[in-house]
Structure formats: structure tokens, C-alpha cells
Specification:
The chain is of the alpha/beta class. The protein has helices spanning about 10-20, 40-50, 70-85, 105-115, 130-140, 160-170, 185-195, 220-225, 230-240, and strands spanning about 5-10, 25, 55, 90, 120, 145-150, 175-180, 200, 205, 225-230.
Length: about 240
Amino acid sequence: MVEVEVCANSVRSVIAAQRAGANRVELCVNLSEGGLTPFLSMIEKSLSMTDIEVNVLVRPRSGDFLYDDIDFDLMKKDIEWCGKLGCSGVVFGILTRDGSIDKMRCAELVTMASRYNMSVTFHRAFDHVLDVEKALFDVIELGCKRILTPGGFPTAVDGVNTIKRLVDLSEDRIQIMPGGGITPQNVENLIIQTGVKAVHGSFLSPIESKMDYLNPNFSPESDFIQYYSDEKIIKKVVDIAAKF
């Protein structure tokens, strides 16, 4: 069966993922910026209210994946907190200036995660490497469990050929998990075309504000609409993935 991982931007989304039968969540905030490390309170609440596997995104800021010493110290501290709280895994990626995997720093974080028996997913920093094949082998060597990638394109459908290539090259030494624009309408073909064993998506739906008064000087769409993972959409993807 193909696994389904939900990119959960809230405790509400984590609950929806569990109810829909997803295998795990990647917990984060600020999806509009590509995802950032969630609040400590959000991690604690997600763990206390559900028993689904919770992997936490460790990304201290938006922008590129070339981190200075302050950024790196924050990442180490966040991984330590995740381990102490009992998270299932962490998700991160660090690059060097020339677009290579920063093996030295990533190895240090992998070692930290392993002390708490947490798995490691190398995230979409992978889509900004200079040499995809070399990067794949570097991440395998680091001991990461999976790579989250849309194949170097905005969506996994666009990057389907690269994803297939990565699956073939990996020879089951690491899980290649496509993410980016995955829907119930395209997930089946993506699985068939690539042979992946896991897929990833946020599966969001808008939720309107319950406020009785909304200031007419502001746009309701930008200031009062919230987006959460939709249990019904997740369930459709889970049902399709279960066929493989």
C-alpha cells in the first residue's frame, strides 16, 4: 500500500489526517512561505490529541537553504525539543553555496535525530541542487529515510520524469516521496508512472470566519479565510493509494 503523508499546518489538520487514515503528518506553519518550524505548543498539542506519526519540519526561516551559524543552532535546538517530546521524525535540508548537499551539517542533525530514534526526511531543498544524481547518493549516505520532492518542478506532475528517475536510481535504499500539487484527480497516474511508495500533500480547503462583524476596509479573503487539511480530500487520496 502506498503511504499518504499530510502536510499539516495546524492541530486541526493533524486531527483530520488521522481521521482520514493517513500514515503520518509533516507538521509545519506558514505554508505560504514554503513551510516553517511549528510552535512548540502546536507540536505538544498534536502529540497529545492524536496517535498518528508526527514528523516536524525544521526550517528556521523562509528563503534559501544556505544557513548561517545562528540558523543552524536554532535547527539543532528544535530537533532536540522534538526528540524530547517524542516526535516520530524531523524534516530538514541544508545546502552549500554551490548547490550541493551540506553533508557535514546534515550529518550532525541526522546523528542528533538518531539519538531520539527519529527518522529523517530530506525536504524540498533537494529541488535546488546542482546535480540531482549526486545529491541523491549523498542523502542516501547520510542515512535519511526519505526525500520529499516534486522532481525539481513546482508540482510533482511536472516533475514526474525526474521522480521516476530518482526511484530507479535509489534502488529502494531510500523512499522517494513526491509532493506538490497532488490531488485525488492526479495521484493514481503519478503512482503508476513513478512507482513511488508514498505521496505527500496539504489537501487544503478554505474555512470562512465565524465572526459576526468583519471590517469592510479589509479583504475577507486575505484577512479572515483560513485553510486547513480537508478530511474528505485526504480520505479520497488514502483510498486511491490503498489500491497499490
